[in-house]
């Protein structure tokens, strides 16, 4: 009889726990979804069939973090955007400007020109307490489906340096579904506290396969928020020693091939020229014809990673930045002031 009673208690308790999480998730969603935005970007890309530049629209998500329109998102959503628009949950659309972008951590800040009445900013939580197994949920705009919620758990944590591309970022791995358009969207814990920003996924098919990655909010605090705003607006490829030889660079350690430059960015103000000629070298695609950056404030591009903190800490608004570049076979310098 005693065993029967215990079994009966267990049977009744299990559904209650699941239902409680579902109810909490629903209430959390109602309280938070209006603070999550969809970002629409415009820029240029290359039509590979015709080998020419063409207009391109991008899609991403973001989260409002202050009442004056500051939005936290993923760097790759806005890094080379010529124009950014913010769509709020009620459908209102306003222009926005990129404030700062940190590709090394896949984080960026943009500011919307205005915020609809009643939309409240989200507070960023201390992400150091996150553990594998914690329940989480994501709100974003996968495939442009505004205010979509998915849920799951934290699968793992990764310290800065674990991802060679986003080497400044502390990452959490999640199994909540994320897809194209989810990038930049907030990850919340079970109590509705923002603990991360969706970055990318690992996939063989191109779609979600259970392995999403988000940058922690502590990374955003330590590396981006409250720091001098720098938006290079550049994308391209790092050229190592072999490619330096192929490109006949005077800097034997290599450089950075500029392939795209966003309008209004620091790269644009410096006068950097983007690539326009598609080419394939060693099975890798390039856009040639643009500048190759060899040094930044006299630091070789190949050593920027080692001197990153030193360089960033030394820069202040109004300071002059100097780039040594190769353009058309000639070495020259470009200078510009940080805003």
TrEMBL record:
Keyword entries, A-Z: Hydrolase, Protease, Signal
Pfam families linked: PDZ_2, Trypsin_2
InterPro entries: Chloro_Bact_Ser_Proteases, PDZ, PDZ_sf, Peptidase_S1_PA, Peptidase_S1C
SUPFAM superfamilies: PDZ domain-like (SSF50156), Trypsin-like serine proteases (SSF50494)
PDZ domain mapped to chain residues: 285-335
Protein name: Trypsin-like serine protease
Superkingdom per UniProt: Bacteria
GO MF annotation terms: serine-type endopeptidase activity
One GO BP annotation of this record: proteolysis
Signal peptide per UniProt: 1-22
């Amino acid at each position: 009889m005693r065993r029967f009673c215990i079994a009966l208690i267990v049977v009744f308790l299990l559904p209650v726990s699941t239902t409680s999480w579902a109810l909490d998730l629903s209430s959390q969603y109602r309280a938070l979804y209006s603070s999550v935005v969809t970002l629409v970007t415009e820029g240029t890309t290359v039509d590979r069939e015709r080998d020419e530049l063409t207009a391109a629209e991008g899609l991403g998500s973001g989260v409002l973090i202050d009442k004056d329109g500051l939005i936290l998102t993923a760097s790759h959503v806005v890094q080379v955007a010529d124009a950014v628009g913010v769509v709020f949950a009620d459908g209102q659309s306003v222009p926005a400007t990129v404030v700062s972008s940190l590709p090394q951590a896949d984080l960026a800040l943009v500011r919307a020109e205005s915020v609809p009445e009643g939309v409240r900013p989200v507070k960023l939580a201390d992400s150091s307490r996150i553990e594998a197994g914690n329940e989480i949920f994501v709100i974003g705009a996968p495939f442009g489906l505004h205010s979509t919620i998915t849920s799951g758990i934290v699968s793992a944590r990764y310290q800065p340096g674990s991802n060679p591309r986003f080497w400044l970022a502390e990452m959490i791995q999640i199994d909540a579904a994320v897809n194209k358009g989810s990038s930049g969207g907030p990850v919340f814990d079970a109590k509705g506290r923002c603990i991360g920003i969706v970055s990318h996924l690992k996939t063989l098919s191109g779609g979600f396969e259970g392995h999403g990655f988000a940058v922690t909010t502590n990374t955003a605090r330590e590396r981006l928020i409250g720091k001098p705003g720098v938006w290079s607006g550049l994308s391209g490829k790092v050229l190592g020693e072999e490619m330096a030889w192929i490109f006949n660079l005077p800097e034997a350690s290599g450089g950075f091939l500029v392939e795209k430059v966003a309008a209004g960015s620091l790269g644009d103000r410096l006068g950097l020229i983007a690539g326009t000629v598609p080419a394939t070298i060693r099975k890798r695609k390039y856009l040639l014809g643009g500048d190759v950056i060899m040094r930044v404030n006299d630091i070789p591009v190949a050593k920027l990673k080692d001197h990153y903190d030193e360089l960033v800490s030394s820069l202040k608004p109004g300071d002059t930045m100097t780039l040594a570049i190769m353009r058309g076979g000639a070495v020259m310098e470009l200078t510009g002031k940080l805003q």
